[in-house]
């Protein structure tokens, strides 16, 4: 291939005279040679190809079908057109218009009769030639004409022409499958020509290959295009799968058969990637079996009996070796010592491959090899595996398979062009194509279905005998770096999103001897993946494939449950990654940082990672792992800089923190910043010293910084460190802030954005530290004075410019989020000028034309409104309210959603201020009315707006005073607000919206000024809550509604005895049905539901009057009463401990938290009921009913007092 490509250069310059360059004498002072871009010296000239095409097209258009010399002229003109090269890589000035090409092909197809088969072949070759090189999108008319012509040629012309016709057809239909619907029946129908030629019984292998290619191009889906009809896609899929399973015909050349398999694999991939695909019957298992076999196509030493179908199973499926060909055994069981420790590529790779597959101790032995880091530093493996091997031979016998010693696909291009070299190349392409198909299967398959086939592709720990053939085998042993990279991509796709599946893995307990639990098998699989990928990490020669290895490790780390596994998996990986941090390939460095980011985010904070972060960067612990500083000089270390390590500051060199031999006291070790943090700071701020990278992130003092991807990933890792391990990084708070400020001061928007994100993360974790519920001791918090100083520096720095950067709205958005992450206590201690600046900027940005900026500004105001120093400021509350009301009418649903959230926060602040009479009087009645009306309108918006709008309605109804409720201006809005809540409770909205609406009604019931006893809307409010408490499928909605029904503080709020009886019966029915659910996720809330219902029933008993006694007696006297008594006993004894139920009891005003307090409350209820006096009318019935209720409560109390 390389030689063939090189031959294009002279031929491409043969059309015009080459430029004459003046001779330049060789000297030290001569300017460096700069090669010209290909053909740049004649960019201004018109293309000869264009002229030739135009001349031929004009002559062809002049021809008529009745011309006497038609055949000769067509033959000549077609030859001339075919002789040209239309590739724009060689002829950049080609400007042939698509319409001219389409017009020419349509006209020529009318001139060439199907009887002239030689001309038909030349026309088909021209169609393929032009469409393939010019990449023209045909119009529908041209597509139809050419399809009609080629399909007719397949019917009329001789078989010897069909190969060229099918080749033209495959080019015509490329990506046009859905547009070919009129011709699909004759191509892919029951007796379609493509089905005939693609059949395994077709003797002509070339016809079979081209037919399969044609079918693949029909199934190919261009992004944004409709998929091919499922009927024809299914037909094609079955043909491709049948081809993959069919054996090689006896008299077929191996190379031709490889080309057939490649075409089938391409078609299978197009089918799987062309939209949603549903496997029928055993199709999935059959496809996976074929792909697994082809993953090892042409692999020496692999001679197994492959199954035709793979079945899902939790245990590994090991392929059996055929008895006729016993496996070869290695010559010795231990590699020579000098080979194991050799610094040469060949010896190291041979040793670790052998040890890695046949011994669990292989990884430890390789980690002890001190010379491995030098392989990556000097790039000794960059030139392929052969470069290291050419330096010296490994001493001792070779343990490395001979087929593994080739360096890459480039070595398949044998100088002599032998068939064996081509066969190796074709087999590698088959393996690569099979892995591409497997990747499409993995991405398109439901994770739940895919997990059943893990054991076929991912091994667990070696258990003796020959190792299973899995993706790991390819990753470690395939000679082609492209194939290894594909296998790594498949493994990464399988690991991505597997956290829920892998969460079952556990090996902390000793395994059972009678059987191996599935959790232990999964844990073994994770350990085996760690072991194998670590070996691949040390072995890989290709930079691109090495990047994939590290990314695959990052996927594994992000999804594995290390808190359920024995410690020790992450420490070797952490230390082995250090040499690659200074790898000369920028993509490798980025992927290393990605892996470190995964390590510090997985189940953070992990004790193992905490220990690693605390260790000095040069600590050579007893694990036997190496550090890059032990063997080679850091690539970041400048000459003459050898000062001892000190705590990191942005001005310090990263190299100053890399000295491994400086002794530190335990106090210094604990106070020193983590090595990873120092590394990231250096990568972001320090100039890079290796100038081999072409990417530069800018200059500082004439020295280029790290490339942007590296700096961005380093900033991301810093954010992860701050989020998960802030206790280790908080000593460097101001220094990290300076790094962020420096990033904000740069010109590149992505760097600025990540700097702002880092500031936001810092603010968030500080707020988390100061939250009372987190119980962080004051000695472990960042001192308040330091927090204030930190934010003072930040707000006086370049963050202001970022807030006003209108040309970068994403940066403005992130800057607003940063402002919202200020600790409220620290904000109160900032200078008044700084506070005013923050508020003014946020209020101004709510009028931004960009919806992202407006959304972030409105959200930040919603955060500020809860600050203790601001929520009592009536002017700030009023300004914020007016801004939020304007945002609620925005056309963007995102803005409206955040505005509703901020309005909910603002009304929460009103409830906090409800104790202050002055605040209520100073707040404008008209503003409250506007908020009530806006929240009512928002409750009819989308669910994400509605959920917070109903929360705001509940708060506002709670906040309104008697003087406001009696005003006529409030009457109708008040009724509309309550009815909006009732409608939301009864609606089919999401459950979160409904339980928020129930909570809002309960919040409104807290307002003693609301006329619950007489208002016409109160009946609807109670009936809606009674309905959902007994019938809603969602238990959290029932819990919220039961809590709301228990909130009214006096009997009058419940209305007449009929409404009171309705509330009681609904609660009793809900208690009886509290376990009726088929959904496990709801059943877990059943204890909380019974807890809340029991509290509500006791509350109703405590406020009941004499007129309620008959209905209570009717409920408590029968079977329902015994059920209620049983649950009340559990509640009073605190046998049902619903976490959420306890919260609902608090919200409902219940002070009975301990069993003693609950029993004391029941005693008070009993005393009150005994003192009730019945009314004159119905006195006897009420007295009798009261006596029964009292007896019920006395019996309940006596039962609860019994031990």
Automatic annotation (TrEMBL):
Give one Pfam family: HEAT_EZ
Q: Where is the composition biased (Basic and acidic residues)?
A: 379-390
Q: Biased composition, Polar residues: where in the chain?
A: 617-634, 649-659
Q: What residue spans carry the region label Disordered? A: 321-342, 375-418, 616-669, 1137-1159
Q: Where is the DUF4042 domain?
A: 429-609
Tell me the PANTHER family matching this sequence: HEAT REPEAT-CONTAINING PROTEIN 6, MALARIA ANTIGEN-RELATED
What is the name listed in the Swiss-Prot or TrEMBL entry for this protein? Answer: HEAT repeat-containing protein 6
């Amino acid at each position: 291939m390389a030689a063939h490509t090189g031959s294009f250069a002279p031929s491409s310059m043969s059309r015009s005279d080459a430029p004459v360059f003046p001779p330049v004498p060789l000297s030290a002072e001569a300017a460096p040679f700069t090669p010209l871009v290909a053909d740049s010296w004649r960019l201004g000239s018109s293309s000869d190809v264009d002229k030739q095409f135009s001349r031929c097209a004009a002559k062809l258009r002049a021809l008529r079908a009745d011309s006497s010399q038609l055949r000769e002229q067509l033959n000549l003109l077609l030859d001339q057109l075919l002789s040209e090269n239309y590739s724009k890589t060689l002829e950049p000035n080609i400007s042939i218009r698509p319409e001219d090409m389409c017009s020419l092909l349509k006209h020529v197809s009318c001139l060439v009769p199907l009887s002239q088969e030689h001309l038909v072949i030349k026309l088909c070759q021209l169609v393929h030639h032009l469409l393939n090189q010019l990449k023209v999108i045909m119009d529908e008319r041209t597509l139809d004409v050419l399809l009609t012509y080629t399909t007719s040629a397949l019917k009329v012309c001789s078989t010897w022409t069909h190969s060229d016709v099918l080749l033209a057809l495959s080019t015509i239909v490329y990506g046009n499958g859905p547009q070919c619907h009129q011709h699909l029946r004759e191509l892919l129908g029951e007796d379609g020509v493509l089905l005939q030629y693609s059949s395994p019984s077709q003797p002509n292998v070339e016809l079979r290959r081209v037919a399969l290619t044609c079918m693949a191009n029909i199934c190919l889906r261009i992004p944004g295009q409709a998929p091919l009809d499922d009927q024809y896609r299914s037909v094609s899929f079955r043909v491709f799968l049948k081809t993959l399973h069919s054996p090689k015909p006896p008299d077929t050349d191996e190379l031709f058969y490889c080309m057939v398999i490649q075409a089938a694999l391409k078609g299978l991939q197009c089918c799987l990637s062309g939209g949603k695909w549903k496997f029928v019957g055993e199709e999935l298992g059959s496809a996976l079996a074929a792909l697994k076999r082809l993953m090892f196509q042409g692999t020496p030493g692999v001679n197994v009996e492959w199954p035709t179908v793979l079945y899902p199973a939790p245990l590994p499926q090991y392929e059996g070796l055929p008895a006729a060909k016993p496996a070869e055994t290695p010559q010795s069981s231990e590699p020579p010592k000098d080979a194991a420790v050799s610094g040469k590529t060949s010896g190291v790779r041979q040793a670790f491959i052998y040890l890695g597959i046949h011994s669990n101790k292989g990884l430890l032995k390789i980690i002890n090899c001190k010379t491995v880091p030098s392989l990556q530093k000097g790039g000794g493996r960059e030139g392929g595996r052969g470069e290291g091997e050419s330096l010296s031979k490994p001493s001792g016998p070779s343990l490395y398979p001979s087929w593994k010693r080739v360096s890459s696909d480039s070595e398949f291009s044998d100088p002599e062009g032998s068939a064996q070299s081509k066969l190796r190349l074709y087999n590698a392409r088959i393996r690569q194509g099979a892995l591409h198909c497997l990747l499409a299967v993995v991405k398109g398959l439901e994770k739940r279905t895919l997990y059943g086939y893990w054991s076929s592709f991912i091994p667990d720990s070696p258990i003796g005998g020959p190792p299973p053939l899995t993706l790991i085998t390819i990753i470690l042993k395939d000679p082609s770096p492209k194939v290894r990279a594909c296998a790594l991509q498949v493994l990464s796709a399988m690991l991505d999103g597997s956290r829920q599946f892998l969460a079952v893995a556990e090996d902390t307990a000793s395994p059972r001897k009678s059987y191996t639990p599935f959790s232990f098998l999964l844990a073994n699989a994770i350990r085996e993946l760690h072991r194998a990928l670590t070996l691949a990490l040390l072995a890989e020669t290709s930079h691109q494939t090495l990047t994939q290895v590290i990314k695959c490790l990052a996927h594994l780390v992000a999804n594995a449950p290390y808190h359920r596994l024995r410690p020790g998996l992450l420490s070797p990986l952490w230390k082995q990654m250090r040499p690659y941090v200074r790898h000369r390939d920028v993509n490798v460095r980025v992927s290393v940082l990605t892996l470190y980011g995964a390590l510090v985010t997985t189940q953070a904070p992990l004790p193992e990672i905490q220990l690693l972060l605390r260790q000095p960067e040069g600590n050579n612990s007893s694990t036997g792992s190496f550090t890059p500083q032990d063997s080679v000089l850091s690539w970041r270390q400048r000459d003459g800089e050898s000062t001892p390590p000190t705590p990191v500051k942005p001005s310090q060199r990263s190299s100053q923190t890399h000295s491994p031999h400086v002794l530190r006291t335990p106090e210094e070790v604990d106070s020193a910043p983590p090595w990873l943090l120092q590394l990231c700071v250096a990568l972001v701020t320090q100039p890079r010293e290796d100038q081999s990278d072409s990417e530069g992130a800018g200059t500082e003092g004439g020295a280029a910084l790290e490339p942007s991807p590296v700096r961005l990933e380093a900033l991301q890792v810093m954010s992860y460190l701050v989020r998960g391990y802030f206790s280790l990084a908080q000593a460097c708070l101001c220094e990290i802030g300076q790094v962020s400020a420096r990033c904000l001061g740069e010109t590149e928007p992505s760097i600025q954005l990540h700097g702002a994100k880092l500031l936001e993360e810092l603010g968030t974790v500080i707020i988390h530290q100061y939250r009372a519920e987190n119980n962080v001791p004051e000695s472990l918090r960042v001192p308040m004075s330091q927090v204030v100083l930190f934010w003072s520096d930040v707000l006086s720095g370049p963050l202001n410019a970022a807030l006003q950067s209108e040309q970068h709205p994403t940066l403005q958005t992130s800057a607003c989020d940063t402002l919202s992450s200020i600790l409220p206590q620290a904000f109160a201690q900032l200078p008044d000028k700084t506070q005013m600046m923050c508020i003014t900027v946020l209020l101004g940005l709510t009028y931004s034309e960009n919806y992202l900026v407006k959304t972030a500004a409105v959200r930040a105001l919603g955060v500020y409104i809860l600050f203790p120093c601001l929520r009592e400021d009536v002017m700030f509350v009023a300004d914020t309210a007016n801004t939020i009301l304007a945002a609620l009418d925005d056309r963007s649903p995102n803005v409206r959603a955040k505005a509703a959230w901020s309005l909910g926060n603002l009304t929460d602040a009103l409830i906090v201020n409800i104790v202050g009479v002055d605040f209520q009087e100073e707040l404008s009645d008209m503003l409250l009315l506007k908020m009530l009306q806006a929240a009512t309108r928002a409750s009819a918006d989308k669910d994400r707006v509605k959920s917070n709008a109903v929360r705001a309605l509940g708060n506002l109804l709670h906040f309104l005073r008697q003087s406001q409720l009696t005003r006529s201006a409030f009457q109708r809005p008040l009724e509309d607000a309550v009815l909006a809540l009732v409608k939301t409770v009864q609606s089919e909205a999401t459950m979160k919206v409904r339980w928020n609406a129930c909570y809002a009604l309960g919040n409104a019931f807290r307002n003693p000024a609301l006329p619950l006893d007489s208002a016409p809307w109160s009946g609807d409010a109670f009936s809606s809550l009674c309905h959902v408490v007994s019938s809603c499928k969602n238990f959290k909605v029932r819990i919220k509604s039961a809590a709301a029904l228990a909130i009214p503080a006096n009997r009058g709020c419940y209305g007449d005895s009929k409404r009171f009886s309705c509330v009681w019966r609904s609660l009793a029915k809900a208690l009886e049905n509290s376990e009726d659910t088929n959904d496990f996720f709801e059943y877990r809330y059943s204890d909380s539901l019974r807890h809340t219902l029991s509290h509500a029933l006791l509350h109703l008993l405590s406020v009941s009057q004499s007129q309620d006694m008959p209905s209570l007696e009717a409920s408590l006297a029968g079977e329902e009463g015994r059920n209620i008594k049983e649950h009340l006993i559990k509640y009073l004894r605190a046998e049902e401990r619903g976490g959420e139920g306890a919260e609902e009891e608090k919200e409902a005003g219940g002070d009975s938290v301990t069993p003693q307090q609950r029993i004391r409350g029941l005693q008070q209820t009993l005393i009150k009921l005994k003192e009730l006096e019945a009314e004159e009318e119905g006195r006897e019935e009420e007295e009798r009913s009261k006596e029964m209720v009292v007896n019920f409560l006395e019996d309940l109390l006596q039962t609860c007092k019994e031990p």
